[in-house]
Specification:
Belongs to the PMEI family. Keywords: Disulfide bond, Signal. This is Pectinesterase inhibitor domain-containing protein. By secondary structure, the protein is an all-alpha fold. Helix content is 76%, strand content 0%. It has 7 helices and no strands. The protein has helices spanning 7-28, 31-37, 42-49, 57-85, 89-119, 123-142, 156-178. Helix 2 (31-37) packs antiparallel against helix 3 (42-49), helix 4 (57-85) packs antiparallel against helix 7 and helix 6 packs antiparallel against helix 7. The protein is elongated, with a radius of gyration of 22 Å. The structure holds 2-acetamido-2-deoxy-beta-D-glucopyranose (4 copies). One 2-acetamido-2-deoxy-beta-D-glucopyranose is lined by residues 38, 174-175, 177-178.
Length: 184
């Protein structure tokens, strides 16, 4: 880039770059906290993202999708184990509903991730984050739907964590919608 052009030109370009960098720096380094504050639990959000604050909305959105997918998959494994461990048909029934709900979350997130990575389309990401929250809640609700029985939810913590992960996805992609720095 810098060839034999005059040193004056190089110098003013450098200064211009520095000014732009200074203007951009404060906002880019705050994306992590901005995103977390808009989620259901800022504390949980900061914990799962870890310390490096210098990530842009693009990376943070991808990471939020990945973390949510991992959690949903882990929860699915756990529900399979619970299903095998119980002889209660009502509980088995509840778990089957929950497996469907969680599978739908996983499928939706995968599709959204694919469109995001391969086509730079992030409109499905918002929906996937909402579905994660909704279906975690629906699974939790199944425990209360059995007539004549009261079941303590064995998945309350999972409803909670997936719900928060979903809200982080929605929050992160919200910054992409509004950002002029959409691309990596
Ligand atoms: C998220 O997962 C995708 C696909 O597995 C991978 O390409 C990407 O590097 C991951 N991104 C982050 C930020 O973890
Ligand atoms: C889901 O994520 C949360 C937060 O990282 C974690 O505490 C929990 O153990 C995860 N769930 C499963 C089933 O791994
Ligand atoms: C499920 O978790 C969410 C938080 O993610 C919470 O708002 C909601 O009350 C929980 N639902 C039930 C039925 O416990
Ligand atoms: C993005 O802009 C919309 C409309 O102006 C606003 O409602 C929303 O809160 C903004 N999202 C973020 C993450 O700033």
């Amino acid at each position: 880039m810098i060839t034999s052009s005059s040193s004056f030109c190089f110098c003013s370009t450098l200064i211009l770059c520095l000014i732009i960098a200074t203007l951009i720096a404060p906002s880019t380094s705050n994306y992590l906290s901005d995103i977390c504050i808009k989620s259901k639990s800022p504390k949980f959000c900061l914990q799962v993202f870890g310390l490096n604050p210098h990530r842009r909305p693009y990376e943070l959105t991808l990471e939020a999708i990945n973390l949510t997918l991992t959690n949903a998959s882990e929860i699915t494994k756990k529900i399979h184990i619970f299903t095998d461990q119980t002889n209660d048909f009502n509980l088995k029934d509840i778990y089957n509903y929950c497996l469907d709900y969680y599978q739908f979350v996983i499928d939706t997130l995968r599709r959204a991730q694919e469109n995001f990575l391969e086509r730079d389309q992030y409109f499905d990401v918002n929906d996937a984050g909402i579905i994660a929250q909704l279906n975690a809640f629906r699974c939790e609700n199944e425990f209360q739907r059995k007539w004549g029985y009261v079941y303590d939810s064995t998945l309350a913590k999972d409803n909670e964590s997936l719900g928060i992960f979903g809200s982080i996805v929605v929050s992160a992609v919200g910054f992409l919608y509004n950002s002029t720095l959409v691309k990596k």
